Amino acid sequence: MEPIISPSILSADFANLERDITKLKEAGARWVHVDVMDGHFVPNITIGAPVVKSLRKITDLTLDVHLMISDPKKYVSDFIHAGSDIITFHLEAQSDLTLDIIKEIKTAKKLAGLSIKPKTPASAIEKYIPYLDLVLIMTVEPGFGGQKFIHECVQKIADIKEYARIYKKDNLYIQVDGGINNKTSKICTKLGANSLVAGSYIFNSDNIKLAIQSLCK
Ligand code: DX5
Ligand code: ZN
């Protein structure tokens, strides 16, 4: 099965998001990855729920929202109401509230994702697997596009795949984000990733369609 590619608009032109999302759709993308950063959980600030709401009006692509924020509990309802389809937040943000937040997302009939940073082991997420639709393994320190893929993280893909088998979660999305290109994509899919986020590789290419296709091979 081909992985689902989720192009990250972090590398798009923020003054031309509609144009860039239309390009992604024409290139065959089904998901769009939206990186939300609060300048606190990560050392960068991007966009919030009002932008997701505007994007919802101009696209029917799956809005795959990645919250890199310190207080997901406080803001998750804003992202639900803005029209996100998938909401992924970080285990490292408010670990005592993780299950509450997952349940809030599920009650709203959205897909719930949980992400781990490069230094967090896969075992930290195991107990949440039965409740999740998606696990996002970061292969760079979250905060910026265009960083180098951290190879030491890849074993976690196989670990999560094994958890999915143990907990009979056949439909779990195992997503990888950070430093994905036409080489690192192969390493990830071989180990069991079925969704790949890519920002700079896609948007810096001359041909977005070919770039997306090259991640599926
Ligand atoms: C980084 C973000 C990524 C980013 C990936 O914190 O979560 O989604 O856009 O960018 P590339 O693909 O350039 O590594
Ligand atoms: Zn991301």
UniProtKB/TrEMBL annotation:
Gene3D superfamilies: Aldolase class I (3.20.20.70). One of its GO terms (biological process) is pentose catabolic process. Its cofactor is a divalent metal cation; Mn(2+); Co(2+); Fe(2+). The keyword Transferase does not apply. GO terms for cellular component: cytoplasm. Keywords: Carbohydrate metabolism, Cobalt, Isomerase, Manganese, Metal-binding, Zinc. Binds 1 divalent metal cation per subunit. One of its GO terms (molecular function) is metal ion binding. The active site is at D35, D177. A divalent metal cation binds at H33, D35, H66, D177. Substrate binds at S8, H66, G143, F144, G145, G146, D177, G178, G179, G199, S200. SUPFAM superfamilies: Ribulose-phoshate binding barrel. Pathway: Carbohydrate degradation. The keyword Ribosomal protein does not apply. Its EC number is 5.1.3.1. NCBIfam families: PRK05581.1-4, rpe. Belongs to the ribulose-phosphate 3-epimerase family. This is Ribulose-phosphate 3-epimerase.
